[in-house]
Amino acid sequence: MSQKKSLHALFNPASVAVVGATPDVGKPGGRSLAFLKKFGYRGKIFPINAKYPVIDGLTCYADLAALPEPVDLVILLVPAKAVPDYLRASGAAGARAAVVCTSGFAEAGAAGASLQAELVRAADEFNIAVLGPNCLGMMDLHSGLTATFTTALEAEFTPAAGPVAFVSQSGAMGAAVFAMAQYEGIGIGKFISTGNEAVLDFTDFVEYLSDDPNVSLILGYVEGVRGGRRFIAAARRARAAGKTVALLKVGKSAAGELAARSHTGALSGSAKVYEAAFRRAGVLSVDHVRSLLDLAVALPGQKRAAGRRVGIVSMSGGAGVMMADASVAGGLEVAPLTQSTQDALAKVLPDFVGRANPVDYGPVYGDPNAIEACVELTGSDPNVDMVLVFMGLSPGMAGVVDPHLVRAQERCGKPLILAWMGGPAHGITALRKAGIATFDDPSRAVEMAILLARAGGAVAGPDVPLQAEQTPRAVATQAALRASIVAGQAALSEREVKALMAGYGIPVVPEVLATTVDEAVAAGLRFGNDRPLAVKAEAPELIHKSDAGAVRLRVAPSEAGQAFSEVVAAAARVVGAANVRGALIQPMARPGLEVLAGLRYDPQFGATITVGMGGLTSEVLADVVTEVAPIDHALAHSMLQRLRSAPLFGAFRGAVPRDSEALAGVLVALSQFAMDCGPLLAELDLNPVIVHDVGAGCTVVDGAAVLGVDG
Amino acid sequence: MSQKKSLHALFNPASVAVVGATPDVGKPGGRSLAFLKKFGYRGKIFPINAKYPVIDGLTCYADLAALPEPVDLVILLVPAKAVPDYLRASGAAGARAAVVCTSGFAEAGAAGASLQAELVRAADEFNIAVLGPNCLGMMDLHSGLTATFTTALEAEFTPAAGPVAFVSQSGAMGAAVFAMAQYEGIGIGKFISTGNEAVLDFTDFVEYLSDDPNVSLILGYVEGVRGGRRFIAAARRARAAGKTVALLKVGKSAAGELAARSHTGALSGSAKVYEAAFRRAGVLSVDHVRSLLDLAVALPGQKRAAGRRVGIVSMSGGAGVMMADASVAGGLEVAPLTQSTQDALAKVLPDFVGRANPVDYGPVYGDPNAIEACVELTGSDPNVDMVLVFMGLSPGMAGVVDPHLVRAQERCGKPLILAWMGGPAHGITALRKAGIATFDDPSRAVEMAILLARAGGAVAGPDVPLQAEQTPRAVATQAALRASIVAGQAALSEREVKALMAGYGIPVVPEVLATTVDEAVAAGLRFGNDRPLAVKAEAPELIHKSDAGAVRLRVAPSEAGQAFSEVVAAAARVVGAANVRGALIQPMARPGLEVLAGLRYDPQFGATITVGMGGLTSEVLADVVTEVAPIDHALAHSMLQRLRSAPLFGAFRGAVPRDSEALAGVLVALSQFAMDCGPLLAELDLNPVIVHDVGAGCTVVDGAAVLGVDG
Q: What pLDDT was estimated at residue B1?
């Protein structure tokens, strides 16, 4: 079905039928009908209930079949068991969209799940875009459409239809956030509770809202995203259109993740992939539900910071330092102001206070003109991208400082965020109305500055296609993997992994597969009489060879036969002799920095790439960076720079720099390989990849992989 | 002076003189006087002002000399220049304490600093405990004593004198926090703004409050603590008395720290030492000023959690997961409830919702009895130390759910924290009054659960004496260091460091100092004909020998002479030939895990000990733990366990465990050494210390030290 067209019908119906309407606003069917009138929905409203001829002046129909004309949207407030039939009746009545708030579906055990499957069949049959079930519905204050029964709409309702949309996968959280927004006068123009997402899912709404001209800020509460790559594309489109998408993702500590067999699997779990996906999508990831609301205050329209350099203007030296601490901890810069700004500030402030940044306006705290001058001068400094202002107590400033701050913000042309601690509530409300993002807590103000800077930053990395192009190499790779899966293999051996890597131009250590002691001895001499060797059992199912004692390093060629016998025996003890193919004889690679490179196929976001420090300590330090594939060279370099160990790639303490460029090339090639494999490969480790001195390239020394499924 | 006695006079004066009193409450002198009456101060009040015979019914005196009787406390609201003379006059009038709010002292440039020095001389002369200058003063709502002029007291004032004290090094932050506390009905019983701390400092107040029976929670805003060891002792005493000390420390990102010369210096900067000191002191360290106020709600009296296991009871599955995420991220455990608890919950909740933890009470969200049952059952579970409850919206629960939650909290006997998001303000206020710690934001509720668990945990490590006992060994160590300082050395050589270490029983690698090529050749053979050697220049000023090329490793004995020449020449290029004493010839140590152990003398907290991963990567990974000396074996082991690399000490991936016990012994000995040195040694690195397999001990292979001052 064309989601977009259906969502248009959901958000812009010419008529709405409310099945289960009643005059009693104590009941969902009563509230739902009443809200449509209260919020000024301008289309036709058809109450459906056989008990009443008329409700609140509207003709009431006995059933959907009795409607005098086709209806666009049906709101179903009927028992769960009746929903599939009513959905069919809705389709017959011409409905292109439906909202099902009723619970008792997939969230409520096996019987509910089969009822939900029936609901989906009915929706498919009549091509109906269904929101829900088990949700609070939706509302669009721009059109007055309120397809919901939540009591959050019963309160005194003042907020205007703001440019903020909120999509929530939790009804309870959604209603609570909506209520808090009301308390604070924040205008959420569109609210959608997605419920069980039987038909329409979170990604569908992000897609729709990314094109909605009434929306500049898309907030969301997310437990899990379906169609991850579609989601990334939609969020990037929203971002390109100047909108901001900010999400709170829960479930980071979930113990439910499947145990991974490889290092990469263990190191790039679902939480890390979500982080990578959000980063790639240009989504602002927030940690607190409170922050969603604060963003609606701090980020109206297309307000953003051009960079991450903050100027701090504080009534208190201590508060200035505190905000500087929090800014730096959050990745912002607190750069000194230029000398000319400091000179100009010297005309307003006495000698002994801070004027470099933070600027301490304590001595003139009672003078709004002086405050204005400090803020304007700081904001106009070329080293500043946004201004954080602190006021403490100062009840006398309520209604007084407002035009000064508005003028300062306008003149410097940069975002201003005010922390007014201990200030009166009416003073804060007035400032917000005047367009100054004001908070009563410095930590919240700094958090918003951090998010403003992130919202302004460039989205890194290439677009993420749904799947790879079917090049001849991709087709060949897929055929090889399918053959292994069909042959009953669960994993690939080191040799198989390296052969695949070589096919993508990734440099691997040379090797010979020896199947007997004699072959091992002969192979050992092939790399030179005195070049030390690595001897490793070749057995696909043995992922962690070192742990099993199936690897011997720095073996003299004369001892290759003995080493062969040892590692083959050790491997046989773990996976059985039948699964041991022999041993690989390799020359020891030249020394270098040992890194881990790997891929994992994520069920939501598809192929992902991970790089980190390698060797035995990789899992201990967990110094890894994960990105969704594909990546390009620039993103590969950025991954390396984000490692805590990044300095080890440079001229660290006199060492020769490492060949990061070669490693970046490996990552890009691996990412193309990962895209080509799709779900056929679950996990792959290259560990270690030895990164040599600059210009000398890098070498994959070992590898292992877990096969996936032939979807 | 006896600080305690003086502080008693400050907090419990039988009489107060207000110098600069006026009938005009628009002026500080007017407000100060008015507040004393408003808050019911019960002692005698003497306004001092030559202009008025009577103010507000009180006899006004022309000057302090005119007072009819000695006065205990003088509040000075006079121009800065006049303060020293008035202080002397106060002393002459019998005052034992004074509050100086006036600014224009050390914070205001050189002239102010010399005025402050004069103030200190006057205070010393008359033995007066002075609060300030440049502060907001103090107030004690228990006695009605308000020695302050802050407008924060002008508002409608309802809070009772609660068991909370707040000590602030920033006046503006202090007043703002105090005002916010008022808005929220939180009773701060004592408030002290310490200003410039010319005489009384932050530590003095923590010491005093640790014995104050009216105070159970000491909150503080701190920029820097003087007398760090005295502070630790005071906070530990408060803690032992069942009180909680919670501080917000600012200045963590300060670029002002002196550049350190050693690894330990670079890795154990001021921010890390404050962390260590607060941990040792049992201080709750908070990151947000908001958290100080929240603690006053969450931690009244001696409420604490017996452990870090939280039970979560949520109206929304998603909110439950969100709080579980935040709890786990903050170090709490979300352990499954016992089967018998789950069985009991099954009588209240339907089959399909979470009952293991989090408990999802969504299906019964409208039934206060069911909520009570869920909370009580969860709280009574043996796997739970405290309960987090989430409610969303639910305006109908205001005033209804209160007795149910109170009963559940009482019956389970464990702390309960409620996040009520979107709930009405009056409902939240009523719950707080009823003794339920309630917040409108789940993140704040979880943060309080984390702090509650920390407040309940044991304080680790031995007491920290002001200085070491003067044992014969301590005296000898100090003499040796003094001799080096007197001789003009700025640093100690590797050989000197190892000699000192050996004196404390710390195992060091054997070595010979060679001063000629011939000596080097002879020394090389002393450790065996084929044992590889380390050859290192011996030069006290050369802290980073490797960087200078003054170290050769794995040298064959036959090449010792050549290596000697190379390292000596390399060292001479950096520090000059005159500063090179020769080269150390050492056998290469047996392999093992390389760690860094070190000490640093901190100007506030004295000797500190640091341990971390060693070798070239120590500064890159910054995987270190710092503690204030002295430490004992248990704390040394805890330091090792807190390293990210801790698994490397155990049987990691089949390796033999390392001799952690031996390393712990080195740390304890080093800590005793650090105590003995005091400020005579600024920094010392043992890097690497090689930790061998369990039972095989460890070996200090290299060391360097920077001398301190003979204070």
A: 44
Element at A549 (helix H, strand E): none
Residue B374 reports pLDDT greater than 50: yes
A258 domain-assigned: no
Cα dihedral A141/A144/A147/A153 (nearest 10)? 60
* Contact B290/A at CB under 8 A: yes
Q: Report how far residue A91's alpha carbon sits from residue A95's, in angstroms, rounded to the nearest whole number.
A: 5
Interface test with B, best of A421, A438, A658 (most B CBs within 10 A): A421
Measured between CB atoms, does A351 come within 8 Å of chain B?
Answer: yes
Of A176, A395, A653, the CB nearest to B421: A176
Provide, as residue numbers in chain A, all residues whose Cβ is less than 8 Å from the Cβ of B251: 321, 325
Nearest one of B669, B575, B685 to B264, comparing CA atoms: B685
pLDDT tens digits for range A656-677: 899 999 999 999 999 999 999 9
**H helix and E strand count, chain B:** 23, 30
Judged by a CB distance cut-off of 8 A, whether residue B113 touches chain A is no
Tell me how far apart the alpha carbons of residues A335 and A354 are, in angstroms, rounded to a whole number: 13
- Residues A451, A522, single domain; the answer is no
Predicted-complex ipTM score: 0.90
Q: Do B620 and A645 touch (CB under 8 A)?
A: yes
pLDDT the model gives residue B526: 87
Count how many domains chain B has: 3
Helices (H) then strands (E): counts for chain A: 23, 30
Q: Can you tell me the mean pLDDT for A222-231? A: 91
Beta strands in A345-484 (DSSP E): 359-360, 386-392, 416-421, 437-439
State the CATH number of the domain containing residue B516.
Answer: 3.30.1490.20
Q: A156 in a domain, yes or no?
A: yes
The answer on B73 and B199 residing in a single domain is yes
**Looking at the structure, do residues A55 and A150 belong to the same domain, yes or no?**
yes
C-alpha–C-alpha distance, residues B196 and A318, integer Å = 13
**Shortest CB distance from A620 goes to which of B176, B252, B645?**
B645
Does some domain include residue B189? yes
DSSP A631: -
Query: Do B426 and B520 have their domain in common?
Result: no
What mean pLDDT is reported for chain B?
Answer: 91
Q: Of A170, A190, A215, at which residue does a domain stop? A: A215
* Shortest CA distance from A617: residue in chain B: B648
Domain at A414, CATH number:
3.40.50.261
Mutate which of B223, B421, B616 to test chain A, going by most A C-beta atoms within 10 A? B421
A175 touches chain B (CB under 8 A): yes
Given A164, A182, A215, the domain boundary residue is A215
pTM: 0.91
Same domain, A534 and A432: no
pLDDT tens figures, B515-525:
999 999 999 88
What is the residue range of A564's domain? Answer: 510-588
What's phi and psi for B587, nearest 5 deg?
A: -70, 145
B88 and B152 share one domain:
yes
Query: Which of residues A464 and B256 earns the better pLDDT score?
Result: A464
DSSP B333: B
Q: Is B429 on the interface with A (CB under 8 A)?
A: no
- Cβ atoms within 10 Å, residue B699: 20
Residue A38: give its domain's CATH number: 3.40.50.720
Nearest to B180 among A324, A328, A421 (CB): A421
Cβ pair A325, A311 in contact under 8 A: no
Instruction: Give a yes or no: residue B684 inside a domain.
Output: no
Q: Does residue A315 sit in the same domain as residue A170?
A: no
- Give the E-state strand segments of A68-216 in sequence order: 73-76, 97-100, 129-131, 137-140, 145-148, 164-168, 188-193
Nearest CA of chain B to the CA of A34: how many Å? Answer: 19
CB atoms inside a 10 Å sphere around CB B428: 18
Same domain, A70 and A178: yes
